[in-house]
What we know:
Radius of gyration: 17 Å
Strand content: under 5%
CATH class: Mainly Alpha
Order of helices and strands: HHHHHH
Number of domains: 1
Number of helices: 6
Shape: globular
Largest sheet: none
Amino acid sequence: MTKNKVLLGLIIVALVSRIAPHYPNFTAMGALAFFGASRIKSIWGSLSLVFATMMISDLIINNLVYPTGELVLMYSGSLFTYAGFATYVLLGRKATNMKNGSALLVGGSMAFFVLSNLGVFLSAYSAFPMTWGGLMATYVAAIPFYAPELISTALFSAMAYAAETKFSTVKA
């Protein structure tokens, strides 16, 4: 029961942290993908939870926060962002202790960086030419956004693990 409450709390925090004004790339989505994968038995359940949370927040962001006058389900690079979160899910399922969990979380963050920025590069809105140099320029331009993503994922994951541990030791 405790893990369900913590997971529900993390879903809410992930939704709010994406929709509310926030420092760029500082959200709980990576933590939801990573932590949730270690708490949900089915990989499909984990992926569905993350993708549903992303889709709901994307619908709100794309149509209410930044409306264009047309219904926008996903932006052109969304599939790459979703693939980045899927990588977190896959790696989160392999996390068995603090040591390998930390390494896997960093690996997930790096994979997310590579995949999501590949989507930025390939989108119609890319500021860089469709060349190898343009791709490298995209990654260089994205470096300032990497630290907030890694820090927020680690922070929210640690908070979820701590909450689960704290609530599981509290006697009713």
